[in-house]
Amino acid sequence: MKFSGITRVYLSIILAMTFWSLTFVWFKIVNEVYPPFTIIFLRLVISSAILLVAGWVANVLQKISRKDFKWILLLSVFNPFLYYICEGLGLTMVTSTLAAIIISTIPLFVPVGASIFLHERLTPLNIAGIFISFSGVLIVLIKRDFSFGANTLGVILLLLAVFCAVSYTLIVKKLMDRYNAFSLTAYQNLFGIVFFLPLVAIFEFRSTMNSVLTVKAAISLICLAIFGSTVAFILYNYSVKNLGASKANIFTNIIPVLTAIFSYFILNETMTFQKITGIAVVLAGLLLSQMGRINKKERFVSP
Fold this sequence. Notes:
Layout: H1 5-30, H2 36-58, H3 69-91, H4 96-103, H5 106-117, H6 124-141, H7 152-175, H8 181-210, H9 215-243, H10 245-250, H11 255-267, H12 273-291
């Protein structure tokens, strides 16, 4: 079956969002065997090996300029290092659906960061979208008796992950004129391996060695690395190139919906009316915040 060019683009972006939605589920499965730092470390090792081999074969891996080394190092500190720490630990404390809802607010705060540090204009739609989306998050978090229905530390960690992702994106905007997305991803993953190795050795080495890797966990780990950290990234950037960053970025809004569906069928997480309502409000806020950016040309790389 042959697809037209635009059909291939839309299939690519939908597949990318599907893979990123599944990462929350795959992480939960692997976490039944391995602790979070180990999962992230192994995920980065596998992904880096794939990227380096592919980069060498395709001859697309660029050398780092000495003046940019500090920026790529800082990029790697925010993502994958701090981002994955916060997201990984947060995922051990809350459901995968809630984690996806919080992480899906990243596109809302990129304009805020760009307004502060890059002096880009923040529109009223951006501000309205932020408030509406956070209302949706609160609907999911707060129970009918107004008590907090989720682990507070887990929510804080995921919000810190959002902050790290926004910081990462702002630095990427500085580097995208000089480096392709493939090279930046490969180098940040390599630095991430160096950062995570001491954490695994100090905090998780014994528990990792005593763990028995199941077939289900092994498959999920490989899927995390191949589809979540490699294939999804390539598909997304292909879509950004052909659709434009703002139009492609809108598709990230479906991640919490897909995660909720996958979690319901794979992890047996509950799907309540309150959760569905909260997701709908979050999506409404996200879409509203993006409406004023559709016609703008900008570069954005998703973490």
